User: Fold this.
Amino acid sequence: MRKMGYGLAASLVTMSMACGGDFMPTTMPPVTDTGSSIWNSSVQMLVVENHGGGFTPQPPPGSTCLVGAKKFTLTVATSALAWTRCVGDGKTAYTETSGGRTLTAAEMKSLDPVLGALKVVKPDGACITDSPILTVTVTTPVATQDYVDSGSQCSTSSKPLLTRDAIQGSLDKLNTLAGP
Assistant:
């Protein structure tokens, strides 16, 4: 019964948004139902991360991060986007750079279809061992929930799954909004 209530609330929020309704804040816990988008009006903070590494050459000596690592934190109420990215050229040590900025209303709206594609999926047994783990963390007024990409379910079986493509799409969009 409890899951059904949250699914209904998420559906109502989605219908309201699709019909041009206001994105009114609610106090739902993070979504874990298969097929449900994790991006809804209860989300206060969203963190999307590529943990870096995978099947890549060993970073040069002195590196402080893994190749490809990046983390984006979106604080919804203030439209604040903060990031940390691992940069390097393979010859010099990889280091973290960080930054932040406030997104415009149009930029926040442009995130809706990309973040809306972050939907919980059923385990399918996929085990990608040569790529970095991609994760998403959602914070609502009720709780915080960690999600992992569906290709990493062999190494992380206790968390709800999202498709790698959807997480990568979110990483790409947030990286573009972060700028160079």
